[in-house]
Amino acid sequence: MILFLWAAVITFAASTVQIPTQQPIEMIQFSSGGMSGHFEEIKITSDSITIIHGQRRTGVLEKVSRQPLPPAQWNMLMDHVRKIDLHAIETLESPTMARAYDGAKHSEIVIHTSEQEAVRHSFDDENPHAQLQPLMTTIRKLADSVEQQE
């Protein structure tokens, strides 16, 4: 009888314990720039995607594109983010370091949470750590589809 009661208590406790989940994501941002001063910035929120091309040296924005983002595309991004430990992103090593000697564009993915936290990963061109590559690929595909529609 005592064994039965303990089993019931453990079952009840296990069903009421909630495993903490990641904080809600507010925005995913990709930026890239090289020594020429040209930069690209992609900002994706749950309802829109904005792409900015410009020149850092002159401050001139060459092109700004903004479109609504369908929920299915945001969900696809969130599927990638859920597979990433947000607290470990900043410790992931970049596969290459050519940006250190201007051999590649300096790029970065920044994930902004609802708690005003921003985690970032820096890398060369569009070549992040392997854990972030599916996210990078999806970001690029979304941006390319927006720019093709214009």
Structure description:
The protein has about 150 residues and is α+β, with helices and mostly antiparallel strands. Helix 2 (about 70-80) runs antiparallel to helix 3. It has helices at about 1-15, 70-80, 135-150; strands at about 25-35, 40-45, 50-55, 60-70, 105-115, 120-125. It is about 30% helix and about 30% strand. The chain has one domain (about 25-150): 2-Layer Sandwich (Mago nashi protein), CATH 3.30.1560. It has a six-stranded antiparallel β-sheet, covered by helices on one side. The protein is globular, with a radius of gyration of 20 Å.
For this structure, the CATH topology is Mago nashi protein
H-E order: HEEEEHEEH
Corresponding CATH architecture: 2-Layer Sandwich
Q: Helix/strand-derived class? A: alpha+beta
CATH class descriptor name: Alpha Beta
Strand content: 25-35%
Characterize the largest beta sheet: strand count, sense, and whether it forms a barrel.
6 strands, antiparallel
Instruction: Determine the oligomeric state from the structure.
Output: single chain
Write the layout of secondary structure elements.
Elements: H1 2-16, E1 25-33, E2 38-45, E3 48-55, E4 61-68, H2 71-82, E5 106-113, E6 118-124, H3 133-148
Antiparallel strand pairs: 1-2, 1-5, 2-3, 3-4, 5-6
Helix pairs in contact: 2-3
